[in-house]
Amino acid sequence: MQYAAPKSVQDAVELLAGEAGVAHVLAGGTDVLVQMKMGMVEPDLLVDIKHITRLKDITAEAGGFRIGAAVSGAELGEHAGVGTLWPGVVEAVELIGSTQVQGRATMAGNLCNASPAGDSVPAMAAAGAVARIAGPDGTRDCLVADIPTAPGRTSLGNGEFITSIFLPARPENASDAYLRFIPRTEMDIAVASAAVSLEFDTEGKCSAATVILGAVGPTILNVNADCLLGTTLDDAALEALAAACSATAIPIDDKRGTAEFRKDVVGVLAKRAAKIAQTRAGVTS
Amino acid sequence: MALDTEKREFKIIGTRPLRPDGIDKVTGRALYGADMVAPGMLEGKILRSPHAHARIVSIDASAALALQGVKAVVTASDFSEAKGELMQNILENCMAQDKALYHGHAVAAVAATSETIAKQALKLIKVDYEVLPHVTEIEDAVKPDAPVLRPDRRAKGAPEGTPANITNLSNFGHGDLEAGFAKADLIIERSFRTESTHQGYIEPHACLASMGPDGKADLWCCTQGHYAVRDMCASFLGMSLSQLRVTASEIGGGFGGKTVVFIEPVALALSRKAGKPVKMAMTREEVFKASGPTPSSLADIKIGMTKGGKITAAHAKLRFQGGAFPSGTIDLGAMCAFAAYDLEAVRAEGFNVMTNRPREAAYRAPGAPIGVYPVEALIDELCIELGLDPLDVRLLNAADKGTKSSYGPTFEAIGLKATLEAAKAHRHYNTPLGPNQGRGVSCGFWFNFGGSTSVSMSVNDDGTVAVTEGNPDIGGSRASVGMMAAEELGIPYENIRTIVADTNSIGFNDPTHGSRVTFSVGLATIEAARDAIKKMCTRVAKIWDIDPDAVMWEDGHARPAGENAGNYEPMSLAEIAAIASKTGGPIAGHYEVNADSAGVSFGVHLADIEVDPETGFSTVLRYTVFQDAGKAIHPAYVEGQMQGGAAQGIGWAMNEEYIYGKDGLLQNAGFLDYRIPVASDLPPIEAVILEIPNPGHPYGVRGVGETAIVPPLAAVSNAVSRAIGKRMRALPMSPPKILKVIKG
Question: Are B670 and B734 a contacting pair, CB within 8 Å?
Answer without folding.
Answer: no
